[in-house]
Each structure stands twice: as structure tokens, then as C-alpha cells.
Amino acid sequence: MRHIALAAASAAALVAMPATGQDAFPVTLDHFYGETVIDAEAERIVTLSWMAQDTVLALGEVPIAIQSQTWGGDENGYLPWVKEAVEDLGADLPLALDTANGLPFEQILELEPDLILAPYSGLSQDDYDRLSAIAPTVAFKEAPWTGSWQYVVETVGAAMGRSEEAAGLVASTQDGIARYAADNPQFAGRTFAFGGGSDAGNVGFYIPSDPRVHLMEDLGLVPAEALNDLPTDNYVQQVSFEQLDTVDAEIFIAWYSSQDDLDTLMANPLFARWKPIANDRFVPLIDRAFVMALSAPSPLSIPWMMDRFVPMLAETLEQ
């Protein structure tokens, strides 16, 4: 695998890598499906997880293949900050694997990877077993589609034998977020809910353990109390329009697939009467790449979107 230092002026990375030695191999990582032993530094990494490819790139490596991002990516499935990071490394884009109809196991086998990373994913036991027969595979820690971006960075760093560099990435990224929070003290203590889409009778809310919610907390916001009472069997939970008033939030942040979807929702009188909507403290997000940056925060996507998102949030709270 190519190992090229990140360009000092890279707008995509915005993180200075410390020069450190490698961790000692073998490395053993525990996860939901057991433990994975990585005997030596990987040279051919495949990522099948949100945020994982970002971390590999931020650590100066280019995976041989990544999961294609059809929602938010370009026509070839690449997210903009991923493309920028690869360009900054002076490398070719990795293969974008089409996973829309399931994992392409035969294609992955032909790539001859020596490490497969999926620490924030929905791998099933069968998926994990089949991938592990190809190469050491790292799955999620506690449940599908759960885990903080910090956990992803630390896990990927450990798998690559670069724990110290990963810790530096986490610290530098958190410092950047903290500066935004310090520059906007009006965020502190304001209650919020983060949602995603809606159907005919419900609004989806992300539970407090979701990375989207954690990122807003890092800016100083506080999840609405009612979110703590939602079931935790899924990272997004539905609340009916009739029950929206039970979610006492000052501000509502949510993504929508299209302007038509948003217009339909705004026409619903129950939604329109809900406090954050009635008070014009609503941050609707339609740009899919931007939504993905917030949904899958990482050392690459966070700096990519913060200069745009923070002013939107500040303006909304001034209403």
C-alpha cells in the first residue's frame, strides 16, 4: 500500500500527523463477533464502514477499496472529502464497491486484502464469517450502526498499528470542534433534537448514543430530555406527529431526501405547530453530501462541513 504524508496545506485533513513509531504486532481487537488478531501491518486494506475510509486516509494511507456511497457521493460513489484527501495524497482513487445488493464477497476475495475494516457498519454474523475467511475483519463493538467517530478512529488506528497517530487525530479534531463551541457560547445548554426524514405519520429522531447527537453535544447543545426515553433497539426511533409535543426541544435539525419531501412535511399542521418549527428554529438539510458529513463525522468530514454548518446553527438560534 502507498504510504504518503498528508500535504501540509490540505484543507481536507486539517490535522497535523505526529511522527510516531508503529505499534507492536500482533494486535488483537475485540468486537461484537469476538476478537480479531492482526499479525502484521496491513498493506491492502478494504473498508466497509462509514468513517473507516476517512480515518485510513487521514492516517496517510489509501485503501485498495471502499464502500461506494450512493447517497451523498458523486456519480461514482465517492464523497467529496474522500476525493480531496486522495488527491492531497497524490494517489489514485480506491475501488468503490457496490454494496447496494449485499456485500460483493467474490470481488473482495479477488482484491486479496490483508485487513477488512467495518467498525461502524451493519455486518451480520454471516457477513463477518465470510469476510473473516478472506482476511482479518474488524466489526462494530456493541450493535450494528453504533459507535462514536472517536471509537472508529481509535479502532482503525489500532488495526493499522498507529494508535498514537489515531489519538492525535482524535485530539486535534476535538480541539477544532471545541474552538467552534467557544466561539459560539450561545449554543451552550440549548436543547435540540436531530431527525431524519419522515413518513405519513411519524418523525424519526436519532437516539442520544448516535454520532450525530454526540457531535451536536460537542458544540454545547443538549439533547431534549424525551430522547433519553426512546427505545435503544435502533439508532433512529419514530415519534408520531400527535406526540411531537412530548419532545421539548428548542431547535430541530433534520435531513430530507428532497425539497418536495420537506415541503410536504411543512404542510402538515401538527408538524408546523411543534415548538421548534413554530418558533422558526428549524435547520432542514437537503444537500446529501452535507447530510453525510454530519451523519458520519470523521477527522475529514467534520472540518469539511463545520464552516458551513455552525453559521447555519447560529443564525437559527438567533430567531
Automatic annotation (TrEMBL):
SUPFAM superfamilies: Helical backbone' metal receptor. PROSITE patterns: FE_B12_PBP. Keywords: Ion transport, Iron, Iron transport, Signal, Transport. Its main location: other. Residues 44-317 form the Fe/B12 periplasmic-binding domain. It is found in: Cell envelope. It comes from the Bacteria. Residues 1-21 form the signal peptide. Belongs to the bacterial solute-binding protein 8 family. This is Iron-siderophore ABC transporter substrate-binding protein.
